[in-house]
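Thought: the user wants the 3D structure for the chain below. I'll pass the sequence to the structure tool as-is, report back what it returns, then summarize two notable features.
Action: structure_tool
Action Input:
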Amino acid sequence: MIFRYLFILVLLPLFSLAKINTIYLAGGCFWCVEEVYEEIEGVVNVQSGYSGGHVENPSYREVVSGNTGHIEAVEIVFDSDIVSLDTLVKSFFLNIDPFDSNGQFCDKGYSYKSAIFSNDQEFIDKVNFYISKIETNHDQNVETLILPFKNFYLAEEYHQDYYKKNPIKYTYYKYSCGREQRIKQININLG
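Observation:
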């Protein structure tokens, strides 16, 4: 009991000083996107889920069937005093195949497309800035969708932190899906 009061009196004011923000990104399999962002200092929390569709609280099976309008996405909560929006957007484009219009890596279909979901013009401008750089540097069209944020529903519990809970299965999936190989092959130039 005393620890709860200590937390409220000492630590809570520190959290209120932080600049906590949230963004929603889709880069194919949400397990892989979750792994990337959980390793970035300043990211407070990452959760897998579904965004953009018309069905409330969809299941994984409903989403991948393609009938809900949702895309596998992650909710990224971050402290902008520690990590910049610029860093988060760069990390996004360095960990997807922005040229794939049919999904990401071995996962195909609308529910696996790369996308950002936002109503924040600063964030959208930052994404468009990097899209322009990528298209210029690679002479290809970026197929990443920029969609208005409507909703985000958490994926089932077994999807959360899947890469930590099932490291052998996850590593096998990630390798056999060709994610890292394709990222190295396209070698995105953000310069």
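Final Answer: Structure generated. The beta strands are 20-27, 43-51, 71-79, 103-104, 107-108, 114-117, 145-147, 152-154. The helical segments are 2-17, 30-38, 60-65, 85-94, 121-138, 162-165, 167-177, 179-186.
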